[in-house]
């Protein structure tokens, strides 16, 4: 018998590797390694600030009439050759009104607030104001603002104020109102989260909401939507006599330097009201502004305002005597930001001098007819201001140039028939107000118009 030949064995001594198994292991590892090696390209595009774009749509809100009187609303365009049609909307209806350059168009404002809308070329040039004649009163039509302060409001029997909140949009809006008093911030639940339905208004009589004596201040912050806030101030000097009313202009924010212009001459009461919203005591000093200098009258003392409170100071002595003689205004400098108002009661009429904003280029205001003066102060450098005034029919009544110098004010007389006043500032900045005297006194602060909008810089980003 033959012996079988034994078979061959593998030289590796182990099982053979399967190709599929190898790929199943290696491919995920290679993929992970490739992903780890990938780095996103660095974004070398520099951040850019928002770009200015011409304003193409504007909504101005004229407050409701004083004590229910219909009053008069006037509109105009500040752009040479810029005209258009404004859309009007009140609580009782809507309409349209032509707006022509440097002419004052009279529209029916009704008793409630009036919303004025303009588009395209007219939008950055639209101005408006509401007037009352007996007694004389003035309120500018303003766009909504995210925050505004009202200093020196009242909630008592002799001095009371009404806060009006207007929502110009179709959607709902919400406002938070902080109330400051002599002892600090007041807890007023009715003023927190005030809802204003779309295209409507809410009027809050402070004497009913938070009845109390003493001076108050309001900080109105828009929490949702857009809201235009205004305050109608009423005062009864005798407690049983006729009540005089005037709109109280708002202040944009507290400041360490407050220039208050528009103090009527003659006998009467003058009260300075300061609000310190900070956490530390503020010390304020007062100086009088006239055409020659800014000075401190003899006997004027520093004012201490506790943190988070309102301080009322009755102006007396040499300071009151200087103001009665026709000083242009009052400069309030403080160690920390404050808001300030001087409330004057002269000839039985109420008026307010409120810390005004700075004009760096140009500003226009509509004012009622009567004896009027343009008051200028707070210049930060030597410069020139050009003052132009037009009648209601568009006739140019005056055009004059006045020098601006730091440390002194300027007083420019205006024609009685002037209803449109424009200032153009060169090489400086200035605070400006028009003081009008007729059947009473009205003060019209001048505010620069918003002519441009901001468009945010948008770029692709990583998820």
Provide a compact summary of the structure.
The protein has helices at residues 19-37, 206-209, 317-324, and strands spanning 51-54, 57-62, 72-77, 84-89, 94-99, 105-107, 114-119, 126-132, 137-140, 147-155, 159-167, 173-181, 184-186, 194-196, 200-205, 212-224, 228-235, 244-248, 255-261, 269-276, 282-289, 294-295, 303-305, 309-314, 329-346, 349-354, 362-366, 371-377, 383-390, 396-404, 410-414, 420-426, 431-438, 440-445, 452-455. The chain has 463 residues and is mainly beta.
- Count of DSSP H/I helices: 3
Counted beta strands? 35
Provide the gyration radius in Å.
32 Å
Proportion of strand residues:
over 45%
Cα end-to-end separation: 82 Å
Helix content: under 10%
Structural shape: globular
**Major sheet size, sense and barrel closure:** 8 strands, antiparallel
Helix/strand structural class: mainly beta
Global mean pLDDT = 89
Low-confidence stretches: 1-14
């Amino acid at each position: 018998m033959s012996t079988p030949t034994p078979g061959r064995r593998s030289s590796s001594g182990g099982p053979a590797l399967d190709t599929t198994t190898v790929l199943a292991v290696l491919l995920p590892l290679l993929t992970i390694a490739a992903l780890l090696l990938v780095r996103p390209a660095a974004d070398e595009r520099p951040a850019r600030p928002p770009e200015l774009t011409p304003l193409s749509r504007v909504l101005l809100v004229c407050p409701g009439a004083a004590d229910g009187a219909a009053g008069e609303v006037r509109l105009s365009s500040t752009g040479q050759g810029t005209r258009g049609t404004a859309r009007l909307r009140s609580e009782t209806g809507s309409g349209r009104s032509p707006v022509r350059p440097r002419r004052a168009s009279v529209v029916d404002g009704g008793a409630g607030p009036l919303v004025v809308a303009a588009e395209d070329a007219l939008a950055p040039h639209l101005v408006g104001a509401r007037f009352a004649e007996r007694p004389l009163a003035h309120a500018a039509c303003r766009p909504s603002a995210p925050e505004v302060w009202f200093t020196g409001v009242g909630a008592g029997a002799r001095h009371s104020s009404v806060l009006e909140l207007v929502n110009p949009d179709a959607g709902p809006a919400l406002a938070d109102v902080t109330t400051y008093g002599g002892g600090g911030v007041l807890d007023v639940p009715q003023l927190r989260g005030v809802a204003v339905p779309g295209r409507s208004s809410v009027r809050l009589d402070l004497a009913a909401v938070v009845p109390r004596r003493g001076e108050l201040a309001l900080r109105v912050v828009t929490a949702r939507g857009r809201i235009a806030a205004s305050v109608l101030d009423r005062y009864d000097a005798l407690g049983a006599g006729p009540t005089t009313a005037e709109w109280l202009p708002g202040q944009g924010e507290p400041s360490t330097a407050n220039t208050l212009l528009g103090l009527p001459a003659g006998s009467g009461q003058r009260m300075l009201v300061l609000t310190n919203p900070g956490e530390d005591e503020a010390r304020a000093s007062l100086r009088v502004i006239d055409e020659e200098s800014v000075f401190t009258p003899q006997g004027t003392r520093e004012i201490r305002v506790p943190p988070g409170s309102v301080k009322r100071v009755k102006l007396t002595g040499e300071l009151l005597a200087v103001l009665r003689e026709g000083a242009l205004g009052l400069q309030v400098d403080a160690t920390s930001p404050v808001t300030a108002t001087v409330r004057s009661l002269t000839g039985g009429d109420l008026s307010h001098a409120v810390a005004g904003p700075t004009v760096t280029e140009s500003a226009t205001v509509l004012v009622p007819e009567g004896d009027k003066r343009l008051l200028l102060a707070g210049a930060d450098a030597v410069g020139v201001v050009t003052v132009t005034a037009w009648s209601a029919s568009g006739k140019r009544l005056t055009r004059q140039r006045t020098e601006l110098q730091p440390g002194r004010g300027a007083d420019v007389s205006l024609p009685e028939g002037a209803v449109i006043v424009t200032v153009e500032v060169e090489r400086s900045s200035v605070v400006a107000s028009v003081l009008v005297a007729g059947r009473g006194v009205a003060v019209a602060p001048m505010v620069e118009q918003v002519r441009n909008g901001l468009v945010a810089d948008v770029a692709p980003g990583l998820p």
